Amino acid sequence: MPKRFVVAASEFTDLPRFPAGFELAEALTAAARQLHETGTPDDTLTTAAALAVRLLPGAEHAGISEIQRGRRLRTLAWTDEVVRFATEHRAGAREPHPDWDHLWTTPVVRIDDSEADGGGNALADLGLRSALSLRLRADRRRLTVLTAYARKPQAFDDDATRVGRLFTAHVSLALDSATVREQLTEAMRTRDLIGQATGILMERLDIDASGAFDSLVKASQRENVKLRDLARRIVDANTGAGGRGVSER
């Protein structure tokens, strides 16, 4: 039996079927509810890693990693330290597992037995014999992967893969939702901050709102500083240093 194989998306045209019946549907519904109740994308990823161990048949550990073009890796969430060692398998290099390269073009990669070729790799060294990697997100620059691990060989069958595909669809939706909420929150905070800075400049320079905003924009361009960061600097200077800070005319 080969050490690993790539599962093409076309092999799972029957994804809407629930291999474990309605109990799986109920479990996925409960998982989706927990994912959508998270407050930030980081919370969503942490929750997803924990839920993966509970939902995916055979899973003992799970982690989520982001791979950038050029093979740079960040571990975003993990259930335990063994996952971090498994993903960041080359000390200092922080490169992804070579099999993950397939996930740029196919949604699933399974490793049936990490010792089948004689071991000598990061998974086998950690006692992890099986892995199921599922793509969460992919664009030109980065790939986000959820991977479940097990200590016995051939732990993940076709049913586990189907459940994993269904689960990652829920994770992706929840992650998109959390990201949009975070961006909207940040936009509101930025708007309020710029409004405060504009008000400070109106009073300090005795100009109207339009002139104050234009002054802020010009200062941002001149100093090559983001408008938000410059606004924060003005507000902080006004509240902390006797109300005197930056002259932005």
Rg to the nearest angstrom?
Answer: 24 Å
Give the structural class.
alpha+beta
Strand neighbour order, sheet with most strands: 1-4-5-6-2-3
Question: Terminal Cα separation, in Å?
Answer: 73 Å
SSE arrangement, N to C:
EHHEEHEHEEHHH
Total of DSSP H or I helical runs spanning 4+ residues: 7
What is the topology?
Layout (H helix, E strand, L loop, with lengths): L3 E4 L14 H15 L4 H15 L5 E8 L3 E7 L2 H7 L20 E4 L10 H4 L4 E9 L3 E9 L7 H48 L3 H15 L3 H14 L9
Antiparallel strand pairs: 1-4, 2-3, 2-6, 4-5, 5-6
Descriptive account of the structure:
By secondary structure, this protein is α+β, with helices and mostly antiparallel strands. It is built from seven helices and six strands. It has helices at residues 22-36, 41-55, 81-87, 122-125, 158-205, 209-223, 227-240; strands at 4-7, 61-68, 72-78, 108-111, 130-138, 142-150. Strands 1-4-5-6-2-3 form a six-stranded antiparallel beta sheet, sandwiched between helices. Helix 1 (22-36) runs antiparallel to helix 2, helix 2 packs antiparallel against helix 5 (158-205) and helix 5 packs across helix 6 (209-223). The radius of gyration is 24 Å and the shape is elongated.
